[in-house]
Iron(III) transport system ATP-binding protein
Amino acid sequence: MTIQLSSITKSFGGHRALDNVDLQIDEGTFFVVLGPSGCGKSTLLKSIAGLEPIDAGEIRLGGRIVAGNRVHVPPEERQVGVVFQSYALWPHMSVAGNVAFPLETAGTPKQQVSKRVQDCLETVALTPYQTRKPSDLSGGQRQRVALARCLAQGASTVLMDEPLANLDPHLRNSMEEELAEFHRTSGATTVFITHDQREAMALADKVAVMWDGRILQVDDPDTLYRRPLSQRVAGFIGRSAIIPVVIQQVDGATARFELAGASVEVDCPVGTRPGPAQVLLRPDHIVLSTGAYGLPVQIVRTTYRGGHWEVFVSVEGLEEPIMMNLSRRATPGERLQVEIIRGWVLPG
Ligand SMILES: Nc1ncnc2c1ncn2[C@@H]1O[C@H](COP(=O)(O)OP(=O)(O)OP(=O)(O)O)[C@@H](O)[C@H]1O
């Protein structure tokens, strides 16, 4: 289902947990809401699920108003599946029993229930575990039971509140793949909230970056990474340096400036003008120079990151060192010639 939020506001005491939030989530999208702890992510999800009434604004699911204008459709009538960080499985029921439960309470005929449960357990690769109790499963397997239960309900919209937060890194990676697969096979509109930008990048078709009750930017992961619209989003997504420059020339979507005697070209928003600006440089935008000329830099410190070294280099005229990746060991004090192959002028 398409999810539309218009000017949603929700306060707790004097604090605005949601401050005039507008969002359009297209049907079938894997939509990630990313933001630091306390920014309002869970409140947003609960509002969509119907677990938290909103103060103002309007929520539409599949075009139908479910909240706002004195309407509050209860959670069980919104046809959305919810998967929370704590799996909320029935401890006394078997895996199959947990998956069957919502179907049985909805009065689905017994034979259909059994067929559907088998199909859903198959999808999440839990068929061999169907007679076990949740307490005899790993965290990841329990998570999959919760997913199967969502799937069994036939929810065309699934809301997930940090479902991978309790898992160890190894399991997290395989669960990420399973979630992506779950999304592909079910085609369900998925809203997934996390404070982990790596997870957001890996899973999302679209990411909304949230801060202090507000949505700062909504874009696909690559655009968010390469073309953030503000310093805050730039700092929140991936690692970066933001350097002050004076733009000398702008040619369409390319801006030119000088740095330590070298001429550098970077991408810029349409309408950028010559003058002082802030430029975002990602580590992968800086490479060793292959030609005779380059930007002279000196290594300040290095950290091995498995397969590559993360290297901070100082550049004449810049107060802070900038970060790049090297595939070979490098030592502090070493001088290098580098090239800036890409960058982004932050909108002023
Ligand atoms: N029931 C409540 N009563 C009072 N304040 C609340 C309530 N629920 C949330 N808040 C406050 O609203 C703000 C947003 O909370 P929310 O749980 O939505 O944030 P979050 O981004 O999901 O955080 P986290 O990632 O830590 O779960 C916080 O300041 C929180 O303390």
